[in-house]
Specification:
Largest sheet: 2 strands, antiparallel
Helix content: over 70%
Distance between the termini: 18 Å
Strand order of the largest sheet: 1-2
Shape: globular
Number of helices: 15
Order of helices and strands: HHHHHEEHHHHHHHHHH
């Protein structure tokens, strides 16, 4: 059995039912919009976000409720809206190996579809009085925007410290997974302490996930994203930050020069990747990823043992062991 199928096992029925509900939440009278939203549903990925929501709810109360389904739909609608807008901003023609909306239907339609998805998510929560769930996801989207802008601001000067890097990835990636696990807890009536606990669990899982993602930049081509893409985009990630902090001034200038002026030169980017590998950047980053993985596991320990909890542990392991 594939690892993702194993993780999904305790929530297989819930995930199938959720897909139907998610499709319904996007249905309109506009034929073009229905065609586009059908395309969005057809190219879904591993669905880690709804999985985190349903598994958290089931671990805590051994059930999911109508609010859990709505919470998962709200997250998917609002997050998909941000992805559609991201593709327009990045002028990206592909997402997960498929053409992006803006590549197929141009920017104007893509932006309007993003607006539609955002408003559907807001209305779904408001119409049902799920203001606590809406607050959790709205805070996450606010932090994701701040994280993106902080990264842009720091990339101009290349002065990202390790602390700033953690803050960027917490806001850009971890906050959304934290929102999912918090919504899973809140949707089944958990107390405030449990919701906070599960938010912390999701945040640490998200930190491990993003650090793993950043490590792909230093793996051989053909696995995950293309080797060196972060350097080409002048993104300062942990392996590079660690290396910069542990070399002499002359070497530091050499590294910064490549990132600033030669980031599109494949030969120089490869040289820099090899240098980072040979100077402990990868080992240090793997250790940090494992630290966050362990912190997330520790949060789960105080909760009841059941199938959903085992799947959350499997999910955590998958986060740091995945190949793409």
């Amino acid at each position: 059995m594939k690892i993702v199928e194993k993780i999904k096992a305790p929530i297989l029925q819930e995930m199938d039912f959720f897909e139907k509900k998610f499709r319904e939440s996007m249905r309109t009278n506009v034929v073009l919009l229905n065609r586009i939203t059908a395309f969005i549903v057809s190219r879904k990925g591993k669905q880690m976000r709804p999985m985190f929501i349903f598994l958290t709810a089931k671990m805590l109360k051994n059930q999911v409720t109508e609010r859990t389904y709505r919470g998962a739909s709200i997250v998917e609608l609002i997050h998909t809206a941000t992805l559609v807008h991201d593709d327009v901003v990045d002028e990206s023609d592909y997402r997960r190996g498929f053409f992006s909306l803006n590549a197929l239907w141009k920017n104007k339609i893509a932006v309007l579809v993003g607006d539609f998805l955002l408003s559907r998510g807001l209305l779904l929560s408001i119409d049902n009085g799920d203001f606590d769930l809406l607050r959790i996801i709205s805070k996450a989207v606010k932090e994701m925007s701040e994280g993106e802008l902080l990264q842009i601001e720091k990339a101009r000067k290349l002065d990202i410290t390790e602390e700033v890097y953690y803050e960027i990835i917490r806001q850009k990636t971890a906050t959304l997974i934290a929102a999912c696990t918090a919504i899973g807890a809140a949707s089944v009536g958990s107390d405030e302490k449990t919701v906070k606990d599960m938010h912390q669990f999701g945040e640490w899982a998200g930190m491990a996930f993003q650090i793993k993602d950043d490590l792909f930049d230093y793996t051989e081509g053909g696995i995950g994203k293309p080797t060196g893409i972060d350097i080409k985009e002048q993104k300062m990630t942990l392996p590079l930050i660690y290396t910069l902090n542990h070399v002499d001034l002359k070497t530091k200038k050499w590294i910064i020069n490549i990132v600033k002026k030669h980031h599109k030169n494949k030969k120089k980017v490869r040289e820099l990747i090899e240098f980072v590998k040979n100077h402990g950047g990868i080992e240090y980053t793997i250790d940090k990823m494992k630290e966050y993985h362990q912190k997330a596991l520790q949060v789960l320990e105080k909760y009841p043992d059941n199938e959903a909890k085992e799947s959350l542990k499997l999910m955590l392991n998958y986060v740091i062991e995945r190949k793409k």
